[in-house]
Amino acid sequence: MECTVRWMGPSGMTFLTETGSGHVIAMDGAPEGGGRNLAPRPMEVVLAGTGGCTAYDVVLILRKSQQDVRGCDVTLKSERAEKDPKVFTKIHFHFTVRGRNLKPNIVERAIKLSHEKYCSASIMLEKTAEITHSFEIIDDLVDAVAP
Question: At the top level of its lineage, which domain of life is listed (predicted)?
Answer without folding.
Answer: Bacteria
